[in-house]
Design brief:
CATH topology: Gyrase A, domain 2
Structural class: alpha+beta
Helix content: 25-40%
Largest sheet: 4 strands, antiparallel
Strand order of the largest sheet: 4-1-7-8
Shape: globular
Number of strands: 9
Distance between the termini: 57 Å
Length: about 160
């Protein structure tokens, strides 16, 4: 009996000290923009991606989430100098615009990337070469159809 109590006490102590890492999978993610992270970051959330066919780790909380979107529109942009692809043009509210500007400045000075998480999956990733202060962000991927982008827009509009 003493051995069982001792084993239970040791297990409780180990788990209380954080030696067993919690599985912080995508259950805590919101739709929004995140910094990429790695699996060794204790605050990282694991999110999957059908588009990129791999798992990502993102830093929580989101830099900007969908409740901070002021406007969402469909637009078309050149892709790799050849064809044009459809994308979601996001106009951010004032508070989110400043956070976005800070995030894009940070990644412009490093090799960091940002990803957009939608319904607990990465659907877009972006780098930046300079600070983006105009409050615009884009969500795009060559593999997203116009219909899928419209569905994303409709859901994100309901979250505002």
């Amino acid at each position: 009996m003493k051995k069982i109590l001792l084993i239970l006490l040791v297990c409780f102590t180990i788990s209380s000290c954080g030696l067993f890492k919690k599985d912080k999978s995508n259950s805590e993610s919101q739709n929004g923009w995140y910094y990429l992270s790695d699996e060794n970051d204790e605050n990282a959330l694991k999110v999957s991606s059908d588009i990129y066919d791999k798992d990502f780790y993102v830093k929580s909380p989101a830099i900007v989430n969908s409740t901070e979107f002021k406007e969402l529109n469909m637009s078309e942009v050149p892709y790799r100098g050849q064809e044009k692809i459809k994308m979601i043009d996001v106009i951010l509210n004032e508070n989110a615009s400043e956070k976005w500007a800070d995030a894009t400045e940070r990644i412009s000075k490093s090799r960091e990337m940002l990803v957009f998480v939608f319904n607990k999956k990465v659907i877009s990733q972006v780098g930046a070469m300079f600070r983006i202060e105009n409050g615009h962000a884009g969500i795009s991927s060559p593999s997203l159809t116009e219909e899928e982008l419209n569905n994303i827009i409709e859901q994100l509009k309901r979250e505002k």
